[in-house]
Design a protein that fits this description.
Number of strands: 10
Order of helices and strands: EEEHEEHEHHHEHEHEEH
Radius of gyration: 17 Å
CATH topology: Rossmann fold
Shape: globular
Number of domains: 1
Largest sheet: 6 strands, mixed
Strand content: 25-35%
Structural class: alpha/beta
Number of helices: 8
Length: about 230
């Protein structure tokens, strides 16, 4: 569903991504693991057609980011690292608005389904600006999921959340990841262990590890991460 071939991104002669290649298939929840500045967000912005690569090719659900970027975007639900929301809109109003932007009919039904899935019912009557960070993340996740995308791209989705919000977001990601492609970025090994079936380790713009989570735990992953990123 996601195929990345030899992607590079160069800024002022410096490689933010250096010939990155991998594939992600349906039903996989893949953690893109690396320190800050490793190139994770840059790669996600390329996959979602926010920025072009310097070289290489990306296809999502069989569509090229060059030849059919609109089709790529229709396949993707995206939650950026800095969750962009309208603080003066009410939660339910915003999700109906998002459904309309996605071209969905029955906007109210789709918004209500997302409110149910993401546990927003107690806060749905409030303005987004009144919500805690955890509930704002739930709104962002609901927006990313509202058009039932085949691919879900999540950039640092759990950073800064309290334990209750953290566990809830993890459960939602695990649930929806059963029949989607999920690619999430993090610099926290325990988050990969808690949610992912596979970890791709990236450092200085290069892939330095690609491991299935079967038989590997957070301690092993931490040791490997530190060794590969030294």
């Amino acid at each position: 569903m996601i195929e990345i071939k030899d992607i590079s991104k160069v800024y002022d002669g410096q490689y933010a991504l250096d010939h990155v290649s991998f594939k992600v298939g349906e039903g996989e929840i893949v953690g893109l693991l690396g320190p800050n500045g490793a190139g994770k967000s840059t790669l996600m912005k390329i996959i979602t057609c926010f920025i072009p690569p310097t070289e290489g090719e990306v296809t999502v659900c069989g569509h090229s980011i060059y030849d059919d970027s609109l089709a790529v975007r229709r396949c993707i639900g995206y939650l950026p690292e800095h969750n962009p929301l309208y603080p003066d809109m009410y939660v339910r109003e915003y999700l109906r608005f998002a459904a309309g932007l996605s071209g969905l009919k029955e906007e109210k039904r789709h918004a209500d389904e997302m409110i149910e899935l993401t546990g927003l019912a107690p806060e749905a009557h409030k303005k987004i600006g009144q919500l805690s960070k955890g509930y704002r993340q739930r709104v962002g996740l609901a927006q990313a999921l509202i058009h039932d995308p085949k691919v879900l791209i999540l950039d640092e989705p759990t950073t800064g959340l309290d334990p209750n919000q953290l566990e809830f977001i993890r459960n939602v990601i695990r649930t929806v990841g059963k029949n989607k492609v999920v690619l999430l970025s993090t610099h926290i090994m325990q988050e990969v262990e808690a949610m992912c079936s596979r970890a791709i380790i990236i450092n200085h713009g290069r892939i330095v590890g690609d491991e299935s989570m079967d038989g590997i735990n957070a301690k092993n992953l931490t040791e490997q991460f530190h060794k590969l990123t030294e």
